[in-house]
Design brief:
single chain; 508 residues; mainly beta; 5-stranded antiparallel β-sheet; 1 helix; 48% strand; globular; disordered C terminus
């Protein structure tokens, strides 16, 4: 593939820990005073996890690390990305030395994995690797590198199962994940990738739910993920049932893990399926490509009640109802699907799900296909959280990047900043107005004098809420390779309470 046409990455960002101290004033004349408002401060430490990228020997994987400039974040700090088996990405065994990356410039390809040496916030840095033995990665960032730190992983597979582009945002460790859209059907090879960042083993359960409910199996219970390790679980080893559409529930009994599903198709390419947003009554799935040839909605409600959903498309002109798919009845504990076909019909669009009556928590994702016949390629759009104050997307190129913004309930003003390029260029900013109920594929700003890749930060200025996704595209041999990542809030800021307390009793 022409890597100058498309920079290959994927990633994600996560808040790991924030340490703050309450500030105390002396006793007031009345002997007490009201609590002060919480201060919104940059996070001090962030962690993220990247799954092992591919099972293919001809896979090429690219990584990009980026931290947006955050006022108040200080002027010192570091970031480190190391292999989950304890081997540093630059070949240093950090399990023994405890050392991280140094501040020299550049990125290189090494046997131990991709070496990413962070530059100053505001400038991305890239690295790459190849083959099927690239490990899962564990990353930490502190100080000025922590707020909004994003690492993205994108893999190019030229042929075979899952050929095309596979992109994923490296994510935070957690204890509960929902993945509607997985499969054990003939022709699909789906893995749940589990990564444990901690010093002790994690114990995980994987539950599968098909069209008729829970699939009974003990093979997904009490799975152990060793410390500082990645573990892929092939879904077809957990059940003999072949089902086209499954919802996967990953729950952690002990410890915490990062979890992502890799969905590979023998004929229609493949991509990473990121976790759906937490179960909610209303969901937004942003950024369906305008040239999508087939869109399939997969939904699941984990509670004890059925859900009835109104299905609408936020188009360029407003909210419309897809003909024949006005509503969706989701039975409790059963995976439900709806074939929406070429629902966008040549225009930008996002799917909006709302309750027809009472609200019942639901998770959902879209399976999106571009191309026809033997030239199909697949990607996924999970329900996602809104952009909020800021979201970040790394590994963008002058061509092949599409940014979709939708404001389903209220008109919003959005600021989009293109960072400096990884090898040169000057940052630039544009502001957009997204009308209520619409989706727009905006003309993304490109750094002047761009050399290399760049990052986009999306900020909600007013109105909203705003939801976003970024699509990377490239066509090789007539196949429209693409991957989609949603852009939830990068959680670079945290509210820290400021406490005022009467300490006069301590002075007596």
């Amino acid at each position: 593939m022409n890597r100058t046409t498309l920079s290959l990455i994927a990633a994600g960002t996560a808040l790991a820990a924030v340490t703050a101290f309450a500030a105390f004033d002396g006793p007031s004349a009345s002997g007490a005073s009201a609590p002060k408002a919480a201060a919104n401060l940059p996070v001090q430490r962030t962690s993220l996890l990247c799954p092992a990228p591919s099972i293919s020997d001809i896979a090429d994987t690219s990584y990009t690390s980026f931290t947006p400039v955050t006022p108040g974040a200080g002027s010192s700090g570091k970031a480190q990305l190391q292999a989950a088996d304890g081997q540093s990405t630059d070949g240093t065994d950090n399990s023994r030395t405890g050392k991280g990356t140094k501040g020299s410039k550049g990125a290189k390809k090494t046997a131990g994995g991709p070496a990413l040496t962070p530059k100053a916030p505001g400038t991305p840095v890239t690295g790459d690797t190849s083959g099927a033995d690239a490990p899962a990665l564990i990353g930490t960032a502190d100080g000025q590198f922590a707020p909004g730190w994003t690492v993205q992983e994108t893999t190019e597979v030229a042929a075979g199962t899952g050929r095309g582009l596979q992109g994923v945002s490296c994510t935070a460790a957690d204890t509960d994940f929902w993945f509607p859209g997985a499969s054990t059907a003939t022709g699909r090879t789906d893995y749940v990738h589990l990564t444990n960042p901690d010093d002790s083993a994690a114990v995980v359960d994987i539950e599968l739910y098909g069209k008729d409910g829970a699939i009974k199996s003990t093979l997904g219970e009490n799975l152990t993920v060793p410390p500082h390790a990645g573990k892929p679980i092939l879904l077809s080893t957990l059940t003999d049932e072949q089902q086209a559409d499954l919802t996967v529930h990953v729950s952690v009994r002990s410890g915490r893990v990062g979890a992502t599903v890799q969905a590979l198709d023998d004929k229609a390419g493949g991509d990473w399926l990121a976790a759906s947003a937490d179960p909610a009554g209303s969901l937004v799935l942003p950024g369906i490509p305008k040239d999508a040839t087939d869109v399939r909605l997969i939904a699941f409600t984990p509670g004890g009640d059925d859900a009835d959903l109104k299905v609408r498309l936020a188009s360029q002109d407003g909210l419309i109802t897809p003909a024949g798919n006005e509503t969706l009845h989701v039975k409790s504990g059963m995976t439900t699907t709806a074939d929406l076909g070429a629902v966008t019909r040549g225009e930008a669009g996002s799917l909006v799900l709302t309750p027809t009556d009472r609200s019942v928590p639901v998770v959902a994702a879209l399976r999106v296909v571009r191309g026809k016949g033997d030239k199909q390629e697949t990607a996924f759009i999970p329900a996602t959280a809104p952009v909020g104050a800021r979201a970040t997307s790394a590994d963008n190129s002058a061509k092949g990047t599409t940014l979709a913004l939708t404001a389903p309930t209220a008109t919003a003003t959005v600021k989009v900043t293109a960072s400096a390029g990884s090898e040169g260029g000057t940052a630039t900013t544009k502001t957009y107005t997204i009308k209520s109920g619409t989706t727009e594929d905006v003309a993304v700003p490109v750094p002047s004098g761009l050399n290399g890749t760049y990052a986009l930060t999306v900020e909600t200025v007013s109105g909203g809420p705003v939801y976003a996704s970024r699509t990377l595209s490239a066509t090789e041999s007539g196949i429209p390779g693409f991957t989609i990542q949603t852009l939830p809030n990068d959680r670079g800021m945290v509210a820290v309470p400021t406490t005022t307390e009467d300490l006069s009793v301590l002075q007596k």
